[in-house]
Amino acid sequence: MSATPALWTARVILASALGIGIAVVAVNRQREAAPAVAATRPPPVAVPAAPVRPRPAPTPSPTPETYEIKRILDTGGPIKYGAWFWDDMDVPAGRVIVTVDLEANVLSVFRAGYEVGTAAVIYGADSKPTPTGVYPVIGKDADHVSNLYDAPMPYMLRLTNDGISIHGSKVAFDAATHGCIGIPTPFARKLFALVRLGDQVIVTRGEKLDLGQSVNAAKPT
Fold first, then answer.
1. Alpha helices per DSSP H over the chain
2. What are the tens digits of pLDDT across the range 45-90?
3. Which of 47, 127, 130, 201 could make an S-S bridge to 98, C-beta 3.0–4.6 Å?
4. According to the model, what pLDDT value does residue 46 have?
5. Cα dist. 69→52, 86, 129, 212, 213 in Å?
6. Which domains does the chain carry?
7. Which residue in 95, 92, 128, 107 sits closest to 11, CA to CA?
8. pTM for the full predicted model
9. Of 212, 211, 208, 221, which Cα lies nearest the Cα of 12?
10. Chain centroid to CA 94
């Protein structure tokens, strides 16, 4: 792997059938002629027809949520391999989203739109590339060991059923993975504590977003 770390701003990758054709059929019943009645009998009282109630308008589909980037941590420049930053002081509770830019070799984690952590990463070698896309976290294991490579994967966050995950690793310029995203283990511990099952991880290659814009790929699952 020979990617060069780059300064990161932000990254991401994106008439009812019951209401039609109802007919009211009037049924005419033949009645026998009624016998004559006395003139003093009061006339029949007309019964008002039942009021026709309008059908409620269909509820429109909700507009997909967007996720606005409200803060980017100041790292003082490009993040060196093995370095990481974390600052969640005074950040409100809110939805968590993780972004990974394979071109910049950087992972960032946001809570309520505020970047609370970022770190340099390693990723899959050319023979086993890390896939891009939007993934929910489908598993967590703080003490995971790979059953394929017999290698420790501490603080593992599983993204796919075939083993792609984020986990603690030695992060160096000349290191690579078998497709996973490796981050410094102390940073992985903090990320593991924050992320919940179902939280989104958005993996891109070089896509950037300015402060104040929305992460349109970040739709609730």
1. 185-194
2. 555 655 656 665 555 444 446 788 999 999 999 999 999 999 999 9
3. 201
4. 57
5. 50, 16, 28, 5, 6
6. 84-204 (2.40.440.10)
7. 107
8. 0.68
9. 208
10. 13
Query: Sign of torsion, CA 107 112 113 115?
Result: negative
Give the 3-state DSSP-derived string for 120-140, with helices as H, strands as E and coil as C. Answer: ECECECCCCCCCCEEEECCEE
Q: Are 100 and 121 in contact (CB under 8 A)?
A: yes
d(CA 99, CA 110): 8
Nearest in space to 201 (alpha carbons), one of 209, 191, 212: 191
Distance separating alpha carbons of residues 8 and 74, to the nearest angstrom: 10
Distances (CA, A) of 196 to 44, 49, 178: 72, 58, 24
Lowest mean pLDDT among 132-136, 180-184, 187-191, 215-219: 215-219
Q: What distance lies between CA 82 and its chain's CA centroid?
A: 28
pLDDT band at 213 (very low <50, low <70, confident <90, very high): low
The mean pLDDT value for 127-143 works out to 93
Tell me: pLDDT of 107 over 60: yes
Q: What's the rounded Cα separation, in Å, for the pair 158 and 135?
A: 9
Measured between alpha carbons, how far is 156 from 139 in angstroms, rounded to an integer?
Answer: 8
- The percentage of residues in the chain with a pLDDT greater than 70, rounded to a whole number, is 66
